[in-house]
Specification:
Structural class: alpha/beta
Distance between the termini: 27 Å
Keywords: ATP-binding, Leucine-rich repeat, Membrane, Nucleotide-binding, Repeat, Signal, Transmembrane, Transmembrane helix
Strand content: 5-15%
InterPro entries: Kinase-like_dom_sf (IPR011009), Leu-rich_rpt (IPR001611), LRR_dom_sf (IPR032675), LRR_N_plant-typ (IPR013210), PRK1-6/SRF4-like (IPR046959), Prot_kinase_dom (IPR000719), Protein_kinase_ATP_BS (IPR017441)
Number of strands: 20
GO molecular function: ATP binding; protein kinase activity
Subcellular location: Membrane
Organism: Gossypium tomentosum (Hawaiian cotton)
Number of domains: 3
Largest sheet: 7 strands, mixed
């Protein structure tokens, strides 16, 4: 029987024991040099800030520095509003290769962004707003593939903005109140949530953003053209009409009057149609109340069809009247104008049904728009609390977290509307791989890394709100048109028990600290099970405890290679890297929740593994 190579042992020791020093001496000296230049005369004499070669940035908690939980590496440098008056040396701060967040908002820092900005490979947040920075933006910005939020507003930057369209995770781009020129920067507008380039010197056409941003985002750019910014042309002097032109004008007038008559007739027909429709709707409501939902519509989708049981009705008559109120539509072009009545009338297809609700594929506008509608009954949470939660989740957002487009809330049920994801779930993809469908090692490690980053981001953004996913499983990892994974149903449930076989479940949005900690750690457990599915190729069928127990038993017997998906081994996947991912999974499903790593640590470990895989693949 094959045994695991001894070369893996150093890596395992690193994962299992996490023994490491803090940032090395070279990084520490670079950070000290960075602060010496940045502070000017302000902080040079303030010894309480640290930032010197005789102390450690993590252990001695330098001013504005945050590190990982093991105090090994610098994760954040946040120096906002400290009246710093020196010069920005981005090259020195980017020596901290694990840096995720860099912010010097509202200071008086001068200088420019050098090409060394590209060395901050892991950077996700860059905030430079409210300083005296100038010069051109470096081309190396396009190398920051993990960047999510970018704010250089209220500075003196000039020149063209590099093409950043390949940074697919970017959700915020603020560059207002600078002297930037050229065309509007090339960005992936499909993911952007916040965008502002007002008060610059941009010129040329506006990009197609499909109405996601208002004219305020573009204003103050005199030479910028497009549908959001109009330029009035000076009126030209009227020329005298010739007899021939006068005759043509008479014909035009006649045609115009005829057109008005036709338009008036069309308006009358439309008004009549609306009045008839309203009358039919009132009749339908009365019928809806008398007979119940199941007798309301037989040939098309109604809300009672969301369950397949005739004994289930939507609600009482009063609840049915409330159901005709508008949905709460969140900021999304796809859901603008969507009404509850539209969902009642639209054809639908049942996609799945579980203990927490049902999910439907709903087709609107003659099939040109496809949405997914999630319905859950008997949630013990008020409509106000549910609405606040949905708004907060939408505000947090992440490109790989499936956000609701709209929602409806009543006492007895909740409806959530999502963009339909056409390529199924991770669970189905794993089932397909067992039947010969291709799902190679490179694709699996990419799914693991993408989902880990998305969850780490949401855990950080929503830690104070206490909102974890609550029901993380491979069936809730969906794939969009580009086969990018998206985590669905984030924050809809809160686990009441860590026992996977337990059927108990809490739907109340409690802020009890113990429950919050347990919820986040339950997410780690759920993600660990997903990792086990990826390395074994065995999707969970009902009870995830069976997979966990089987993997643990095989590992205890030291037949670890038997765990791995045979298809991956046949394609030549690295046993070493498979073993590392397995060890990460085992750390995540540790029976003691407080000994599990946090999601940020998991994301770093998996991204490191993915980087090694990418380098290995590039040399093949």
């Amino acid at each position: 029987m094959n045994r695991v190579s001894i070369r893996v042992l150093p890596i395992l020791i690193f994962l299992l024991f996490n023994v490491s020093n803090s940032e090395d001496e070279e990084v520490k000296q670079s950070l000290v040099r960075f602060m010496d230049k940045l502070a000017g005369v302000t902080a040079k004499t303030d010894q309480s800030w640290g930032w010197n070669t005789t102390s450690d940035p993590c252990i001695h908690k330098w001013k504005g520095v945050s590190c990982d939980t093991q105090l090994r590496s610098v994760k954040k440098v946040v120096l906002d509003g400290l009246n710093l008056t020196g010069v920005l040396d981005i090259g020195s701060v980017c020596k901290a290769s694990s840096l995720l967040v860099f912010s010097i908002v509202k200071n008086n820092v001068a200088g420019l962004i050098s090409e060394e900005m590209g060395n901050c490979k892991r950077l996700t947040h860059l905030y430079l707003s409210g300083n005296q920075l100038s010069g051109h933006l470096p081309d190396s910005l396009k190398e920051l593939s993990n960047l999510k939020r970018f704010d250089i507003s209220n500075n003196n930057f000039s020149g063209k903005v590099p093409d950043l369209s390949q940074i697919s995770r970017l959700i915020m781009f603020y560059a207002q109140n600078n002297q930037l020129s050229g065309e509007i920067p090339k960005l992936d507008f499909s993911n952007l949530m916040q965008f502002n380039v007002s008060n610059n010197n941009f010129r040329g056409p506006l990009p197609d953003v499909k109405g996601r941003f208002s004219a305020e985002s573009w204003s103050g750019n005199p030479e910028l053209g497009g549908e959001f910014i109009s330029k009035e042309s000076p009126p030209s002097a009227a020329a005298p009409l010739s007899p021939r032109k006068s005759e043509d004008s008479s014909r035009r007038l006649l045609l115009i009057y005829f057109g008005y008559a036709v338009l008036g007739l069309i308006i009358l027909l439309v008004v009549a149609f609306i009045l008839i429709s309203k009358k039919k709707l009132k009749e339908a409501k009365a019928d809806f109340a008398k007979k119940g939902v199941n007798a309301y519509i037989s040939s098309t989708y109604d809300v009672s069809k969301i369950t397949e049981h005739k004994s289930e009705n939507l609600a009482s008559y009063e609840e049915s009247k409330a159901a005709m109120s508008p949905l709460v539509v969140l900021r999304s072009p796809r859901a603008q104008g969507l009404r509850f009545e539209d969902l009642l009338r639209a054809p639908a297809e049942l996609l799945g049904k579980g203990k927490h609700g049902s999910i439907y594929k709903v087709m609107l506008d003659n099939g040109s728009t496809t949405l997914a509608v999630k319905r859950v009954k008997d949630w013990s949470v008020t409509s106000q609390a549910f609405s606040r939660r949905m708004q907060r989740l939408h505000q947090a957002g992440h490109p790989n977290i499936l956000r609701s487009l709209a929602f409806y809330s009543s006492k007895q049920e909740k409806l959530l509307v999502y963009e339909y994801q056409p390529n199924g779930s991770l669970s189905k993809l794993l089932n397909g791989s067992r039947n010969g469908q291709a799902f190679d090692w490179g694709s699996r490690i990419n799914v693991a890394a993408t989902v880990a980053e998305a969850l780490a981001y949401m855990h950080e953004e929503l830690s104070e709100d206490g909102i974890a996913h609550g029901n993380l499983k491979s069936a809730n990892i969906l794939f969009n048109n580009n086969m990018d994974p998206c985590v669905s149903e984030y924050g809809l449930m809160i686990s009441h028990s860590e026992n996977p076989s337990s059927n108990s479940h809490s739907n109340s949005f409690s802020l009890d600290p113990a429950r919050i900690r347990t919820s986040f750690k339950a997410d780690i457990y759920g993600f660990g099970v997903i990792l086990l599915e990826l390395v074994t190729g065995k999707p969970v069928q009902g009870d995830e405890l069976e997979l966990v127990q089987w993997v643990n038993s095989v590992v205890r017997e030291e037949w670890t290679v038997e765990v791995f998906d045979k298809g991956l081994l046949l394609e030549g996947a690295s046993e070493e890297r498979l073993l590392i991912l397995l060890q990460i999974a085992l750390k995540c499903i540790n029976p003691n929740p407080y000994e599990r790593p946090n999601m940020d640590q998991v994301a770093v470990m998996i991204n490191t593994l993915k980087d090694e895989e990418d380098k290995s693949s590039s040399h093949v």
